Amino acid sequence: MQLDGKVAIVYGAAGSMGGAVARAFAAEGARLFLAGRTLATVQALADEVRANGGRAQAAEVDVDDRDSVEWHGDEVLDAAGRIDVSFNAAGMDAVQESALVDMSLDDFMTPITEAARRHFITMTAAARRMAPQGAGAIVTLTSSAAKEWRHRMGGFSLGCASIEVLTRTLAGELKGSGVRVACIRANFTPETARGIPDGATDPLLADTLLPRLPRLDEVAAAAVYLASDRAGATTGAVLDLTCGAIVS
Prior knowledge:
Layout: E1 7-11, H1 16-27, E2 31-36, H2 39-51, E3 55-60, H3 66-80, E4 85-88, H4 105-130, E5 136-143, H5 156-173, E6 179-186, H6 202-206, H7 216-227, E7 237-241
Parallel strand pairs: 1-2, 1-4, 2-3, 4-5, 5-6, 6-7
Helix pairs in contact: 1-7, 3-4, 4-5
């Protein structure tokens, strides 16, 4: 198993993306510490993982609150002795389908501020605890919006781009520490949304080369890879899962 014996924190674990990654981590042997704002939903996932033979603990953690994340990091160290993997699936609030010239400053700034704040807090918390170990993997998640031309996305594109910049910057600052920082850039994943109207994703499909959109299990598999020793030569990089919407 790719993550056998590794200790992994998953933030935003109760969401569809966080849950898929958490289940994939557990299937590959990781010991999970699941974090989210609503304890009941995170606990339900931990119970599911344990029922399937995995190891998981749940905690109520607010990724907007640095003290909350730092407390949890210490709790994980006390319980497991180390942190090998940090994955942040916490989303951001974003107003879209509105022209920039018609958008309020607050609506524009919200996803930028939330993305930067939440990832700065969780990534630096992990880095401070991993560097003394001499090893670890910090895995971030962004979207095709970080690089595409598509309009009427408000501040969401800038929020996604900020995550990729943080990934590169922190990877550089951790040079020589043995800690890797890498990012997954996925396209819209239909399984994460409910009640999508017929034809709503046609413009997205038209921009892909495959043509299709990524599956949730593909994103989870990418997270497993980046968290594993098989990706030991990968840091400061973005793994593109946009189905060809972005070609770089």
